[in-house]
Amino acid sequence: KVQSNGLSTAYLEDIRIRSVIRQLMGLALVPHEHVSLLFDHLLEELDEHEHEQLDGVFKYFETQWLRQTNMWNVFSISDKTNNYSEGM
Questions:
Q1: The pLDDT of residue 88
Q2: Per the CB 3.0–4.6 Å rule, which of 2, 44, 46, 61 could disulfide with 51?
Q3: For the segment 32-84, what is each residue's pLDDT rounded down to a tens digit?
Q4: What is the rounded CA–CA span in Å between residue 21 and residue 26?
Q5: 28 HSE (CA, 13 A, CB side)
């Protein structure tokens, strides 16, 4: 969604935008019960310009992923890969 929202350049050049997007990805690694709270916190921490830039990404994440965290949250899973050769 970074590319489809025109954020490729911002992701590469703006450390704050990159950090927020990486924090969104990191929500998969926090306890399931904290995901919504941390998502809201990330959104609240954005300034007006960042909010405008990242609005599409946040809306996509909220509608596609936030409602079904049990499908992608790996906090309680000991093997966090689907590449079984990595566990050898």
A1: 58
A2: 46
A3: 999 999 999 999 999 999 999 999 999 999 999 998 898 899 998 877 677 76
A4: 9
A5: 11
Give the 3-state DSSP-derived string for the chain, with helices as H, strands as E and coil as C.
CCCCCCCHHHHHHCHHHHHHHHHHHHHHHCCHHHHHHHHHHHHHCCCHHHHHHHHHHHHHHHHHCHHHHHHCCCCCCCCCCCCHHHHC
Q: Say how many residues make up the chain.
A: 88
Q: Which residues contact 49 (CB under 8 A, 6 or more apart)?
A: none
Single pTM value for the model: 0.81
Token pair listed for 33: 């019960």
Residue 7 — left, alpha, or beta (φ > 0 → left; ψ -120 to 50 → alpha)? alpha
How many other C-beta atoms can be found within 10 angstroms of the C-beta atom of residue 80?
11
What are the residue ranges spanned by the domains of the chain? Answer: 8-71
